[in-house]
């Protein structure tokens, strides 16, 4: 980790290029780069191209707080497994809310999986999981737990920026965490980018097809 890294990043493309530089040891080893949709998919394409690897997605979705919708209280994978954030408070966000939100997100992920096609083979491969940043780390943690059950050869979590708490959460779930910056005053992922547009579904499909 580089505590002194100059923030904010210009955009996701710049951040992805910097991450690719940190991952050059993977070039020629045909890594599987798994991006967390949708924001990380453009980054995943850049990294996969630089490393001569394969790009796919790992489907996990945030579960918002019932009180503060911008705050994630956990995440759910496409199989319905819920990962609650360490600070989850049942008195503020009840489990009934979590269950409803989880079902909605699973339905969305099933539609996306149908559009994206079957997931790539993980067993025995070097797998690099990419997101555009970690605030709570619950989404990345859910992705890593899912992937560990599929027996990768080596599992790497890769992000440009993260809170220290998020890094501490995900580090035990993978073989390596690659992160460029862990700012002390971390508030949100988007504030660490000058330009942070929403990534549309059509762009994701083109990127997965290798057309952009």
From TrEMBL:
- Domain of life the protein comes from: Bacteria
Q: Identify the SUPFAM superfamilies for this entry.
A: PRTase-like (SSF53271)
One Pfam family name is Pribosyltran
* Record-annotated Phosphoribosyltransferase domain positions: 16-165
The molecule here is called: Phosphoribosyltransferase domain-containing protein
Q: Which organism is it from?
A: Pseudoduganella lurida
Question: Lineage of the native species?
Answer: Bacteria, Pseudomonadati, Pseudomonadota, Betaproteobacteria, Burkholderiales
């Amino acid at each position: 980790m580089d505590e002194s890294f100059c923030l904010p990043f210009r955009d996701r493309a710049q951040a992805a290029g910097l991450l690719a530089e940190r991952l050059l040891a993977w070039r020629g080893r045909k890594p599987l780069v798994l991006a967390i949709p949708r924001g990380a998919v453009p980054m995943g394409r850049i990294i996969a191209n630089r490393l001569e690897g394969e790009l796919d997605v790992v489907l996990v979705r945030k579960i918002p707080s019932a009180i503060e919708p911008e705050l994630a209280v956990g995440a759910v994978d496409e199989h319905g497994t819920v990962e609650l954030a360490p600070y989850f408070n049942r008195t503020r966000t009840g489990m009934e809310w979590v269950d409803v939100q989880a079902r909605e997100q699973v339905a969305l992920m099933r539609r996306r999986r149908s559009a994206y096609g079957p997931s790539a083979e993980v067993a025995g491969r070097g797998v690099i999981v990419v997101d555009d940043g970690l605030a709570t780390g619950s989404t990345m943690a859910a992705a890593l737990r899912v992937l560990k059950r599929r027996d990768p050869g080596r599992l790497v979590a890769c992000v440009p920026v993260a809170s220290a708490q998020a890094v501490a959460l995900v580090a035990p779930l993978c073989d390596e965490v690659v992160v460029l910056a862990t700012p002390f005053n971390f508030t949100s992922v988007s504030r660490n980018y000058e330009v942070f547009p929403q990534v549309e579904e059509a762009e994701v499909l083109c990127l997965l097809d290798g057309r952009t």
